Amino acid sequence: MSNDPVSFKKVLIANRGEIACRVIKTLKQLDIRSVAVYSDADANAQHVLLADQAIHIGPAPVSESYLDMERIVTAATLCGAEAIHPGYGFLSENPQFAQLCANNNVVLIGPPASAMVAMGSKAQAKAIMGEAGVSLVPGYHGERQETEFLKQEASRIGYPVLLKASYGGGGKGMRTVFKETDLEDAIQSCKRESKASFGNDHLIIEKYIVDPRHVEIQVFADQQGQVVYLFERDCSIQRRHQKVVEEAPAQGLDESTRQQMGQSAVQAAKAIGYVGAGTVEFLLDANGDFYFMEMNTRLQVEHPVTEMITGQDLVAWQVQVAEGHPLPLTQQQLTLSGHSIEVRIYAEDPENEFLPCTGQIHSLQLPQASRHLRVDSGVVSGDEISVHYDPMIAKLIVWDYDRMRAVHRMEKALTEFQIAGLKTNLPFLSRIIKHPAFTKGIPTTHFIDEQHEALLVSKQALTAADFVMAGLYQVLSAASQYQDGPWSQLHGWQLNGSDDHQYDFLNEGDVVTVNIAKVQQAASQARRNAGVFEVVSGDQRYTVSAQLVTHENVQRLRLSGDIVKTVSVFQHEHQITLFDEGTVKVVAQKQLQLSAAEAGTDAQLKAPMNGRIVKVLVSAGDSVQPDDALVIVEAMKMEHTIRAHKAAQVLEVMFAEGDLVSEGDQLIELQLEDEEAE
């Protein structure tokens, strides 16, 4: 491409979700028209609604839509887009896609195809980095992929080893293997996951470093050969090899090591002729030695550097670099000014092995954005979290002038981030940020495993106060509907009845009855959304002053007296969600008898989430032993194995490979061996 500046008038975004929304917002700031692409599942997604134009590109599976290079390039040429921004993931590191764009005279806002060839394959990238003098983790990075050969290489390297999708990222197609007997299954699972997510099943093997830290360096390179590094971020707190918490600068990193890592990152970018925004990832061992892991196109700068560089700034720089402009700053102009923390908010259940949760977001309330706080999200209230895509809801970023101030900002922001309708990792994130091992220590990639007892607490039991609050909310929300009418003045009288209320709630199958009587109207004015109440639940009696207020579409219940609380409340049908300083509790009325399928029993194994059957490993008549793998279900591009609980014989298999299943669907019926004996 010529170095003469061009001015893009229209850019197509070949992605979805949070990153697509971030790119579209930046294009609006640059006065460039945006074009979204979408699958069947994303017809009403936020990136589609935000864009100036949207083009349908196929069915929900990514292989038939967001990974379909021909459809995307055709969409760009048909709509007259001069350039394509690939975001991260999907096609952002695919050299064939880069070449296809060039063949059709469409500018790809990202590194050239030659750099993608070098970094798109982890094997190729490591070979180049080794030649450039960048230190590497010991491992196998070659082309041979026969299972027996990979077993030999793993034995040579020494267990434990880490399998990685050569063309992957984001924790997909990655497994840690501690003994040889587990290797073959892990290889096959990695290959399937890699093929589904990235269109290629090539693997590499690395020595698994015990108790490492994962530190990344953001780099930016222009077409004139200038490369700068934008400091480091510690990404060690992970689950399933995916980052959960990131912070910058990394704790306990001396200035000499920081500079050496930055210079190595610049060296890596120059070695492959990189252009644009990219991330160089390193592992640090217990001795402080660092090793190159990989390089990718992730846009992730959240550092409080000069002018506070944001994700939007990086996107703008990418566009300008693609137009031929040089970088707007030099390495000497970059100076750290404080501390920053980012958390990733997912629709998932940390207490159930982080299984993804799908369904509708009934309510989404975000903390107030400011110069110290940013939220990057691709969803709003009413949107669906689909089984087909990553379950990330948002990234929450805060910064301040030192680490503890940033930690306190994050603690507060997490309590203000409220989601109703499906389970999320918000309470889990709050426990991480408050944990002494985080606030005072230097976490490794084993942080979550090491602190699991404190972080992965069992489901919090509902208390008597929770049922009282749910009942009072029902009373006040119903009464407030009539606040402005003439009948609101008759607050002390009801036709054919008293001002008493009874509500029945469910608590682990039991019924909790709450009786509420108003004993005094609000003193300030005749408002029906406030008053003093006598509340009886079981053998507990409370006198409570309660008020329900609404501000910016958020309802808050304020209590004083025998219960002193202020909680945010959201109701959907007969479920009442209480948000209380980072904890989330759902109180269900008795009318909402659970009609969903029960959890799977030993004899009837059921789908733990919505998904697609990847592989059926047994047939009717087979005998199975405890922990035998029976079915593999794919949800949100991650595989989950359903295993036998007890020794049994397979009576029936309900689904075949490729079938879609819903949470609670019975997958397999077994006859337990102890039942046969009877």
Determine Rg (CA atoms, Å): 27 Å
CATH topology-level name of the largest domain = D-amino Acid Aminotransferase, Chain A, domain 1
Shape: globular
Give the structural class: alpha+beta
The helix content, as a percent range, equals 10-25%
Q: Total number of β-strand segments? A: 39
Q: Overall mean pLDDT score?
A: 87
Physical arrangement of strands within the biggest beta sheet: 14-13-10-11-12-15-22-20
Number of helices: 17
Main beta sheet strand tally, sense and closure: 8 strands, antiparallel
The count of domains is 6
* CATH architectural category of the largest domain: 2-Layer Sandwich
CATH superfamily of the largest domain: ATP-grasp fold, B domain
CATH class of the largest domain: Alpha Beta
pLDDT < 50 stretches:
484-497, 592-599
- N→C terminal distance: 77 Å
The portion of residues forming beta strands comes to 25-35%
Features:
D-amino Acid Aminotransferase, Chain A, domain 1, single chain, eight-stranded antiparallel beta sheet, Rossmann fold, Dna Ligase, domain 1, 6 domains, 39 strands
Topology:
Layout: E1 10-13, H1 17-29, E2 33-39, H2 46-50, E3 53-58, H3 69-79, E4 83-85, H4 95-103, E5 107-108, H5 113-120, H6 122-131, E6 139-140, H7 147-157, E7 161-165, E8 174-177, H8 183-198, E9 203-207, E10 213-221, E11 227-239, E12 242-248, H9 255-271, E13 276-284, E14 290-296, H10 311-322, E15 339-346, E16 348-349, E17 355-356, E18 359-360, E19 363-365, E20 373-377, E21 384-385, E22 392-400, H11 403-416, E23 418-420, H12 426-434, H13 436-439, H14 447-450, H15 452-455, H16 464-480, E24 500-507, E25 510-521, E26 530-537, E27 540-551, E28 554-561, E29 565-572, E30 575-580, E31 583-589, E32 604-606, E33 611-616, E34 623-624, E35 629-635, E36 638-643, E37 648-653, E38 660-661, E39 666-672, H17 673-677
Helix pairs in contact: 1-10, 4-5, 5-6, 11-12
